[in-house]
Write a structure and sequence with these properties.
Blueprint: H1 2-14, H2 42-54, E1 57-61, H3 68-78, E2 83-87, H4 95-108, H5 125-138, E3 144-149, H6 157-169, E4 174-180, H7 187-192, E5 196-202, E6 205-210, H8 246-253, E7 258-259
Parallel strand pairs: 1-4, 1-5, 2-3, 3-4
Antiparallel strand pairs: 5-6, 6-7
């Protein structure tokens, strides 16, 4: 019995970290089409474009049904450069399937990758694969853009740790754009490094936050030419701010601009 278990463990260790036999679903590495009836959201498209141009990581977070995928698809359709797309689901929540689809998406976007890393077997196969992929991405000039849609569905620590490792070691060769109800990555690290764009949405809108100013206007407005009607509850006699509401008004004016996702 012990010999049988040892033989099974050795067989698992000898398997490639990313098997060439993993079936690749074309729909998972293809950006969704934008239907004719979709309402253009040029403001959101611009924010994603700016984030992917200036920061290593751009995240779009919002509840289910808020339009995250469509926002990314609209941006990808307008993006002049190639965009590698991976649509995630619970079935891909394991390293072999996840990385097989990432590699296939990168190849489809035009990135030249060898069939397999030079060393793919043994106990350290997974780490060797990540080293190989990070080195290949680091050599990209211009950088390659990768979209991971619905990243919140990835909960396997090996998947998430590997993704963070690659992103931290590729330098300017990769621009990662992710969406999800939440993003299971150490965002504080990229925020402190000034290498993160955050677009936070609700069903009624999305907030924009940058870790550092990008070239262009320092503050964006949701819709030029439109203004919010004054709230009578915030006004005292004669139209002046009611006592005790000055601080709340100041905080409200300092919030990021809101943009509709749907």
């Amino acid at each position: 019995m012990a010999a049988h278990v040892a033989k099974q463990a050795a067989a698992r260790a000898s398997r490639p970290a990313v098997s060439a036999g993993v079936p690749i679903l074309a729909a998972k590495i293809t950006a969704p089409g934008v239907p004719d009836w979709a309402v253009p959201r040029p403001r959101i498209t611009m924010l994603i474009a700016q984030g992917s141009r200036w920061h290593r990581l751009t995240v779009v977070t919002a509840p289910a049904g808020a339009g995250k995928t469509m926002a990314l698809a609209s941006w990808a359709a307008a993006e002049p450069g190639a965009v590698a797309w991976v649509g995630l689901d619970g079935y891909g929540n394991q390293p072999k399937i996840f990385w097989a689809h990432v590699v296939a998406a990168l190849r489809r976007a035009g990135m030249a990758l060898r069939t397999a890393p030079p060393i793919m077997r043994g106990r350290d196969a997974g780490h060797v694969f990540l080293l190989w992929l990070a080195a290949a991405l680091a050599a990209q000039d211009p950088p390659v853009t990768l979209v991971l849609d619905d990243l919140h569905l990835m909960t396997d620590p090996e998947v998430l740790d590997g993704l963070d490792y690659v992103l931290r070691n590729v330098g300017p060769g990769l621009r990662l754009v992710v969406s999800g109800r939440m993003v299971p990555l150490p965002l504080h690290r990229y925020r402190l490094a000034g290498d993160l764009t955050e677009i936070r949405g609700r069903r009624s809108g999305v907030h924009h936050r940058r870790s550092r100013p990008a070239p262009g206007p320092a503050r964006h407005h949701a819709d030029r030419g439109l203004s919010r009607a004054p709230d009578p509850a915030n006004r005292g006699l004669g139209g002046r701010p009611a006592p005790g509401r000055d601080l709340a008004a100041a905080r409200q004016s300092a919030e990021p601009a809101q943009l509709e996702l749907i």
